């Protein structure tokens, strides 16, 4: 029983990280039609800037951790806004060019991170509480898993509230349904779309800081490794559906953990198999809009 509980909470923590990355992907593609392969770079930059805060302050207390979360989110947001404003804005409805330029940006970003921070993983320290465990039904759960879960839930609630109850949220949803009509009303949809990129980058940057504590290190390849599973989560959950992304993130991560433990480390294969089944029998995803 304790093993099942441990795997479940470990999967929930990993699923929280998948969701923080997939939330931005789902928003950017589902609302704007942009397939952003550079999204992992936003996460990696957030992780490195968060680590820099801890390194330069020379402390690993809660205040430093919270500051690193804020700085990591800001770094991801700024990088994402720059990417949309400089590179993507001129390429809407040109999907091949979008793929090429975002793939190129992701490769260039990894090379840049290699040059600044080196190619070797950088191991990090967090608040002492992160190193402790909490016993639940006989299982000793690392405390940092709870932080990831709480952060993902708060981000999901904040995004849903923003899209449904704020002026820009309504502009974004209206712009996706009928961009020309919204533009005819004198509303600049471009600013709203830049905001979508910024929000997605902030979520990814936040996820990068949390991922560095979850795995215990930061490396230039951290974002790319998580991006693969975030794409899977986005497709399974349904493009543009935040709730679907949240459900899929938990399902994928928990399935991955159980398969790795009970099926000889085949978690990645099982996840890809699940993706194939979804594409075959429900191409729109769990909560995606059917054509």
β-strand number: 4
Strand content range? under 5%
CATH architecture: Orthogonal Bundle
In CATH terms, what is the fold-level topology? Answer: ABC transporter involved in vitamin B12 uptake, BtuC
What is the overall silhouette?
globular
What is the averaged pLDDT score? Answer: 86
Structural class: mainly alpha
Strand neighbour order, sheet with most strands: 1-4
Helix content: over 70%
Q: Low-confidence parts, pLDDT < 50 over ≥5 residues?
A: none
Number of domains: 1
What is the C-level CATH assignment?
A: Mainly Alpha
How large, in whole angstroms, is the Cα Rg?
19 Å
Distance between the amino and carboxyl termini: 43 Å
H/E series = HHHHEEEHHHHEHHH
Biggest pleated sheet? 2 strands, antiparallel
The DSSP helix count reads 11
GO molecular function: transmembrane transporter activity
GO biological process, one term: amino acid transport
InterPro entries: ABC_transp_permease, BCAA_transport_permease
Keywords: Amino-acid transport, Cell membrane, Membrane, Transmembrane, Transmembrane helix, Transport
Descriptive notes:
75% of the residues lie in helices and 4% in strands. The chain has 291 residues and is mostly helical. The protein has a single domain, classed as ABC transporter involved in vitamin B12 uptake, BtuC. A two-stranded antiparallel ribbon has the order 1-4. Strands 2-3 form a two-stranded antiparallel ribbon. Strand 2 and strand 3 form a beta hairpin. The longest helix is centred in the N-terminal third of the chain and has 31 residues, at 2-32.
């Amino acid at each position: 029983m304790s093993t099942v509980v441990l795997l479940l909470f470990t999967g929930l923590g990993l699923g929280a990280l998948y969701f923080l990355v997939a939330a931005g992907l789902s928003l950017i593609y589902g609302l704007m039609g942009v397939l952003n392969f550079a999204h992992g770079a936003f996460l990696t930059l957030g992780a490195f800037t968060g680590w820099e805060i801890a390194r330069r302050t020379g402390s690993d207390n809660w205040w430093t951790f919270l500051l690193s979360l804020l700085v990591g989110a800001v770094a991801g947001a700024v990088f994402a806004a720059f990417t949309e404003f400089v590179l993507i804005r001129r390429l809407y409805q040109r999907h091949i060019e979008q793929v090429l330029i975002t793939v190129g940006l992701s490769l260039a970003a990894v090379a840049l991170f290699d040059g600044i921070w080196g190619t070797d993983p950088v191991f990090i320290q967090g608040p002492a509480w992160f190193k402790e465990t909490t016993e639940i039904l006989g299982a000793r759960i690392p405390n940092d898993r709870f932080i990831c879960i709480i952060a993902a839930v708060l981000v999901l609630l904040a995004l849903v509230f923003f899209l449904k109850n704020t002026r820009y949220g309504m502009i974004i949803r209206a712009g996706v349904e009928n961009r020309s009509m919204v533009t005819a009303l004198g509303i600049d949809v471009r600013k709203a779309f830049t905001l979508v990129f910024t929000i997605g980058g902030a979520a990814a940057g936040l996820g990068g800081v949390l991922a560095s504590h979850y795995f215990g290190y930061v490396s230039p390849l951290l974002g790319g490794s998580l991006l693969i599973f975030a794409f899977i989560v986005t497709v399974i959950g349904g493009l543009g559906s935040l709730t679907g992304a949240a459900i899929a993130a938990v399902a994928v991560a928990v399935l991955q953990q159980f398969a790795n433990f009970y099926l000889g480390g085949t978690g990645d294969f099982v996840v890809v198999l699940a993706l194939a089944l979804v594409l075959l029998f429900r191409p729109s995803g769990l909560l995606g809009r059917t054509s």
